[in-house]
């Protein structure tokens, strides 16, 4: 996992920083965290396009000072966004139970998308990533990885969060979906690329809470925060587009009850 962030990711990061400086306060006041508009949705994916637009408008609260261990009110997580996901009825849908950051999870979701979209002809196929355990580290940006030394928690498999970095396949023509080195190949396995295809990445409050406890216990707490405050800081720094749930383990039954097919990347 040595891929370095590409030019697009660097520009995106710089742009997000400029936006945060110029208009970030207004965005936080409105409770909205903007995500990049998907540009890799298949032709004819009208329902998925509409869902993605609604998700981009759904509020994401990222101004917490503290958070409790158990979330007991919708204001404490991104309630509107998972409600939209659960309500999606217009196509087959699948939820992946992803816990291993170094496993094949991004590749597995990409292959599933390709098969449903082009083999079975379901352009509106929806994939959700139920992201928890060590895989949840992938949903934090470089600032949190550096401040809290998150690479150490990956067992030496990552030096930085390369899963949010642009891959070389992103530069290929997206119209050529058969390109073995293109945007729909293993050469473009990244979280932003999958988000551009409509994949919804769900974060787990319980995993964030436990991560905060681990950081405090191991002495990686430079600001000497309480667990409530450290968990709040981590929550506030989830990458753009991520949907916070009160807990993945308890959210999975809600998704399955709504017709999501369960899959596990191993």
Q: Top keywords for this entry?
A:
266 residues; alpha/beta; 5-stranded parallel sheet
Rounded mean pLDDT is: 88
Oligomer: single chain
Helix percent reads 25-40%
Distance between the termini: 18 Å
What would you report as the Rg, rounded to the nearest angstrom?
18 Å
**Which residues sit in consecutive blocks of at least 5 with pLDDT less than 50?**
1-37
Percent of sequence in beta strands: 5-15%
Order of helices and strands: HHHHEHEHHEHHEHE
Structure description:
- By secondary structure, this protein is α/β, with parallel strands linked by helices.
- It contains ten helices and five strands; from the N terminus they run ααααβαβααβααβαβ.
- The chain has helices spanning 7-22, 24-30, 46-57, 80-87, 105-119, 142-147, 191-196, 205-217, 227-236, 248-257; strands spanning 93-98, 126-131, 200-204, 243-245, 261-264.
- The protein has a five-stranded parallel sheet with strand order 4-3-2-1-5, with helices on both faces.
- Helix 5 links the parallel strand 1 (93-98) and strand 2.
- Helix 8 packs across helix 9 (227-236).
- It starts with 6 loop residues before the first helix and ends with a strand.
- The model is unreliable at 1-37 (pLDDT under 50).
